[in-house]
Amino acid sequence: SSAKTLQISYIGMQTQEVAIKPNLRVVLKSDSQMVDEVVVVAYGSAKKSSLTGSVDIVKAEQLTKVPVTSFDQALQGKSAGVQVTAATGRPGAGANIKIRGTSSISAGSDPLYVIDGVPMSSTDFASINANDIEYMSILKDASATAIYGSRGSNGVILVTTKKGKSGKTTFSIRAQYGISTKTTDKFEMMNAQEKLTYERQLGSGYGATGGANGGAMTDEEIAAHPSTNWADEIFRTGATQLYELNMSGGSEKTKFYISGQYYDQDAIVPGSYLTRETARINVEHTVSDRLKVGVATSAGISKEGLLRTDRNALNPFNYVYSANPYDAPFNEDGSYNTDITVGGVPLNIFENIDNNPSYINRLKIVGAFNLEWKIWDEIKYVTVAGVDFNQAIQYQYNKPESQLSNILSPDGPKGYRNDNFTQRATWLWTNMLTYEKTFNSVHAVKAVVGMEAQASKYRRINAMVEGFATGKLDAISIGSTNKDVLGTTTEWKMLSYLGSAGYTYDDKYILDVALRRDGSSRFGADNQFGTFWAVGLGWNMERERFLENIEWLTRLKIRGSVGTSGNNNIGDYAAQGVYGYGSYNSESTAYPSRLPNPNLSWEKSMQTSVGLDASFFDSRLSVTFDLYKRKTTDLLLATRLSMTSGFSSRIDNVGEMENKGYELAISGDVIRTNDWTFSLNGMISQNKNKVLKLYEGNDITIGWNSLVSEGHPINVYKMVRWAGVNPANGDALYYTKDGKITNVYNSDDAVILDDKTPDPKYFGSFGAKLAYKGIELSGDFYFSGGNYIYNHINFFTQSDGSMIDQNLDKKLLYNQWTKPGDITNIPKQSLNNQSYQSTRYLEDASYLRLRNITLAYTLPKRWLKPLRMENLRIYAQGLNLFTITNFSGLDPEVGDSPTTGLAATAGPAASVLDFSFPAARTIMFGIEIGF
After folding, report:
1. Which residues are in the TonB-dependent receptor plug domain (predicted)?
2. What is the CATH number of the domain that holds 146?
3. Which residue in 557, 584, 602, 656 is a FRET match for 15, CA 20 to 30 A apart?
4. What secondary structure letter does DSSP report for 547?
5. Of all helices (H) and strands (E), which one includes residue 632?
């Protein structure tokens, strides 16, 4: 009753004291110092203002706006410096992700994924429900990743799943349905009339021999012939449906989150599909004021229909381009037309898909048990025990009556069954002591020491058999001949010691240090342990007196770090001597197949990074800028051995590479009122790569059109340069190595093309969000510029006469050179004329894509109260709605390639467009109901 002032406070607002009056109206101001997001970082959590490393946060709502089956694909355009490429449009396929460039030639550039403290295999993200994710932390520089030691050089992605909240138990139901189609109609292939005319011109094929008199077809016969559009026949409208239920709640002591989801997708081509069921249980229990325990477990099972991706008639995407348009897929009675020949192979693609089924069943379990014991107020003991279990069974059956069985075994046993079983179990045990205390309100100290043990075991069993009587009975035991069973078991182990310490003075000046020592069974006996470290500094300048009166400045922070990390992503026995097994004279034999290398060690990266974080006008405008340089040494490469050793080569640490670049991200709230919100965001990144050192300076060939070479970007093209078409005679022209023009193709004239690399010169995204009360419209564009892709499809379809037995590009008929003086880029057409590998098919694959768009409406709560609902949201989402590009292929976002021939994934970067699964355009409709 004697009080004269009243103190008013609220989370995120500045506390105010006002004189007590009968009537008061107080407006609190935002306090940027209090609105300081706590995020998960390496082995713990921290306020963003206290970080010295480069860490980006991707929240749940950003992930669920992108309707993809594998959550890593949703990261595209969400973090500067993180290049995300959809490896393939296949249902359930993951993405290729590179953080700050390619850091390795042979050991991979995938980041380390950690879910709820457990390192996770990146092979099957489709078994993880993206809606179970609370947010992801992307660690990019040395200060953030060094604590992960030999696994952190490619960056780290920390996945934090949703937890329960005390109070009323809530239920949420989500249902979605959508359709998918191909993203483009860029199929400039000849129709039947055009192809028959072309064949007649060259004097080969049905157009030259299919006339009534056994000779060339007449114009009337050509005009009357039916035509098949193979793109329309093979591509279809896919359908997707999703149903999900989750519940959350608990008491002050026990909290839980439980979810279950069913997902079903039929892809845009027959034979490709994905069904998936996932479940998650997260439980936290407070035993006492000083002891907490928790469990986070998820399980997912899936079945995916597989298509062949070889560069032949078995691949439906090859068939779209290669099948002749004067052939029909079905006879008049609806049966398969088995007289079709594609590339010399008598195969009907629909018969092949129906009579040669192939699919893979997967099981993935990720679980973590954690315990936190507060020994004293400042000291905690934390332990995490986790497992990542992956199992897959791939089924392939060629029915004995199928065309393929007759092709593979024309005179032998018919029918073939192949089962491939793989299993990998990885367990982890982490133990840590943490200390955290603030002295005199300004000296904040924290420290972590710990150890970590990890082990992984892989098992593979492959069983094959031939000789089946009927396609209706496919049990592997029924096969009568050529039975074979293969098996492999491998394992690796790791033991690590880690520590970190940090000091912050008055929330202004920040110092972080980290140290980790890893021991791995993968490396040589003399180098099984490696040490990695980092130092980071930060300065929150807005807290300085000389800036505190600048009202429009909310936050201004400068940070920098330097440190080392490693890459241990090589074979489990790369350093060990290995024996191979065989037989001789009906007896088993063993022989040395690889020499041991006791000196083999990690690839090592040293990264230096400086950055700036700034926000203005009560955080309405935010800017983040980073510069970095990363040098990778001890690259794992093949070295030559003396022939007297009995071996030609072995793996050694001999190479060096460098990445450097910048990252810029800007976001802002243009309008922020009670009813209206309008925000914009954008980011752009650039990375420059250079190979500094290779073994004896020798180039490494990747496929036939690119290589790794000292002084050049990784995976640079080396090709003969195309000079166009001679208008006088229609000959194809090429540049010699010294720049002269010739009509003679010589592979020795190939030169390195530094200015045309598979990696983009820049990439990024921009987006906007507009909301009025319960209505929301948001969208994101993604762009990539300056990267070049070799269009290998055009090499086949614009073959100038050498591939007359398959369909071809319209340009060969309409744009070909026909008389002196013609200006064109299509040479004269003649039978068996060769179109050589050159820059003729190397294209600028820059593009701008509307990656995703969402229109949603959340009903007012007063409407829902009579229905006993907490919320109801309906929405529509679009994915890959349109793309602007000059690239002539189906999709400029090139990921993988066929398994035979040119495999883009065999090299450090995707460089070849082949007959791979293209991305799909998807439209989804959904409803979410909360109780």
Report:
1. 48-156
2. 2.170.130.10
3. 557
4. T
5. strand 621-640
